[in-house]
């Protein structure tokens, strides 16, 4: 398997310990079964061997011991991968904006009322309804409401991204930061959306709204999003037009894409340093939930880097990535 391009990708190292959730093996089995049940891939076991989404969630959400909640999160992560790569990005790149918009809005609608009848013969819609219904069973309606709110934020970011993609422009460096926070698939799940959910901990809304927690949310989302941008850059079909930090910085500073990669890596390390300071402060908070979120934020970042470097082949080549996988096309473009 060979990359599309030959840029030198800077090494990104997270200075935090990596832990693995004890329910990883069970989550893997339940994820493969769930994929097969909803027909989300022709070869569930083979795809999981390439992507390892169960390894991803076990690495980024290691706190807790409930395998069922971890499996639900792995299933949710796979759902977002299919939604983002195939139901949104692919039609956008084909100039079919209305298709991407329709799917994004329909998904949000399902999260808001997952027990309503779904008349469309689109497996991903039914898979999402299943995730939402089981979330209510596992953690209650408030948990689902938080996830639905996160899905709105994610969908908003994706729809804003469309405006740039369709006009073949890129946002400025300042605008790209808050946009990337929302277009990473982790936006719907930070803090109690999934960190608390997996750990079996209910984090009050008044805690999630505090500036210290918002800062950790923003930094973690950017660090994870930028790791993707940098590490996957050789897989981009048109790197100079890529909605990715290296291309944004190269255009903003009128430099080469390789220089953009180096600048992106420097910025990534600056954000990690900021997160270290923010989580150190959280660790000294009188509020136990903030202390927990500080620790969880470090594990989330460290786990994602561990997954990207050691567990997944998702961005390794053009043979097994989102740009060449056509298995969902017939459903995505169905009118």
TrEMBL record:
Pfam families xrefs: Terpene_syn_C_2
Domain of life: Bacteria
InterPro entries: Isoprenoid_synthase_dom_sf
Name of the protein in question: Terpene synthase
